[in-house]
Design a protein that fits this description.
By secondary structure, the chain is α/β, with parallel strands linked by helices. 24% of the residues lie in helices and 23% in strands. Bound molecules: zinc ion (ZN) (2 copies).
Length: 270
């Protein structure tokens, strides 16, 4: 058992955070610790103010100057289980039963599965339709079976609401939702969704902009979705132009010149 951690910069740094598991913590992680784990896993990105580098467009269409990609944390199955256990700690005041633990596809699918395992609740996954619609293909959920949602990130509650819409589209009667929803990282000022209180481990209400009001856009930075190869581009500062030598989109600014991280070619003054 690790001792209580008061300063993650010094204490968590002594261990490989990707090896942490449920047995290391018998308490809630602090927001600093959660943030530290995300950073160490390469899941945290911040805009550095350089307009040659891109910034993030969220699923809701708003532009952001920081973002987390939970896949880089939750793909470590031990960390996924750790955060599932943390979710259960965070909801401890709630003493009702939960029949279903569900999360949006795909980022929260495995996370909510781990919560379901720990709660001995039922679980199934959503398909993803046009405009990121969440499509329920699981069995019919009883009218009085309590459904609780477990997400990894909430920006505008787009995914959380899409899950509810998907469930409703698949059921001819009203469904019962728990009095809370959980998200590991909560970056909006939304306090509740249809009467369900938002619980989180980290709550940083933070800036997001409509495209027309976005300062990074005004500086000339390009907005991109934080998905797939785009995440590498965000993390490494790729400028989004192909290398003139090898054609890879792995060109970074390097002083007054640009350099390709794939083949090493440089251009501009050097
Ligand atoms: Zn923007
Ligand atoms: Zn190259």
């Amino acid at each position: 058992m690790l001792p209580p951690l008061f300063n993650p910069e010094y204490v968590l740094a002594l261990t490989d955070v990707t090896k942490l598991s449920v047995k290391n913590f018998d308490r809630l992680l602090t927001p600093d610790e959660v943030t530290y784990i995300y950073r160490q896993c390469g899941a945290f990105w911040e805009y550095d103010g350089n307009p040659d580098t891109p910034h993030v467009e969220s699923l809701s269409g708003l532009h952001l100057d920081w973002f987390v990609n939970s896949h880089y944390v939750l793909s470590h199955t031990n960390l996924c289980q750790l955060f599932a256990q943390q979710a259960i700690r965070a909801m401890r005041q709630y003493d009702g039963s939960i029949a279903w633990a569900l999360g949006s596809s795909t980022a929260a699918s495995d996370f909510s599965k781990d919560v379901a395992n720990a709660l001995e609740a039922r679980h199934d996954v959503f398909g993803v339709g046009a405009d990121n619609a969440q499509i329920w293909k699981g069995p019919l959920i009883g009218r009085h079976e309590v459904i609780c949602q477990f997400e990894e990130l909430m920006t505008r509650a787009t995914a959380t609401n899409a899950v509810r819409a998907g469930l409703r589209a698949a059921h001819p009667y009203e469904l019962t939702f728990a009095p809370f929803v959980f998200t590991i990282i909560h970056r909006s000022e939304i306090e509740e969704i249809e009467g369900s209180k938002v619980l989180s481990l980290v709550h940083y209400p933070s800036r997001c902009w409509k495209p027309e009001d976005c300062p990074p856009c005004k500086q000339g930075s390009k907005a991109i979705l934080a998905k797939g190869a785009n995440w590498q581009r965000l993390k490494k500062g790729y400028i989004g132009e192909p290398c003139k030598e090898c054609g890879q989109f792995t060109v970074v600014r390097c002083g007054a010149a640009v350099k390709c991280l794939s083949c090493g070619a440089t251009s501009g003054c050097s």
